[in-house]
Fold this sequence. Notes:
Elements: H1 22-33, E1 39-40, H2 41-48, H3 52-64, E2 68-72, E3 77-80, H4 87-92
Antiparallel strand pairs: 1-3, 2-3
Amino acid sequence: MPDLPAAHAPAQYGQRTLGKGELENLVRDFLRANPGHEFTALTISRELGRSSGAVGNALAKLVTKGEAVLVKDAPMIYSLASAPADATLADTAAPAQSGPTSTGN
């Protein structure tokens, strides 16, 4: 096999195999570290040193979960999903009561 420059060497050379969900976590962390920016799977794969196909699969899962958004279809460009403005308030607010409660007396 010919010697390839480090920037063009296949990602699997010299890297450990990731466990289930690890690449998805790496991609999520990358997007969170770069909010407001848009990336292709290839760009992220080069930054992480992983296969662009595997990164694309991880991005598709993150889109399905609502953690990333597909900004553009051709080429496929992704960004971190914005949390709904009221999501954090809803998580911390006390549950609303739906009317008067009776004590049964």
